[in-house]
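HUMAN: Now follow C-alpha cell order:
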Amino acid sequence: MKAELQDKLYSAYPSIFVQKDLDMTQTAMCWGISCGDGWYYLIDELCGNIQNHVDNFNRNKPEEDRMVCQATQVKEKFGGLCFYTYGGDEYIDGMISFAESMSYHVCTECGQRSEKNESNRGWIYTLCSSCKENK
C-alpha cells in the first residue's frame, strides 16, 4: 500500500496501529500494511468499526477493565486480506473474518469487484480483469 494511504490509516486509527513503530522482534506491523491500494477502503471500514466497538465497550469502564485491539500484522496472503490483532473480542474477530472474506471479491490494486485468480508465476491475487491484464 502506498505510504500516503497507509499514513491516513495510521492517523485515523492511532490506537489500532500503535505497534507500527515497534521493533520487528516485537511485531510484524513494523513492515507496514502489505497489500495493494485497492483494499484501502475495506481496511478503513474495518478499522472504523473496530474503533467504534472498542470505544462503546470502554465507555464508563475503569482503566483496568478497558478493551484494547491493536493490529499486529496486515497483509495479503493467498489472494486475501489477513488482519492479525492483539486484544479484542469475539465481535471484533467476526468483523475481521467478514472483511477478510470480502477481500476475495475486491481487486487488491484498484478496489473494483473481482474474483481470486492465480497468476502464471504461481502467486494468487485478487484482481479485476483490467488489473489482471496489466500484472
Remarks:
- The first strand starts at residue 33 and ends at 34.
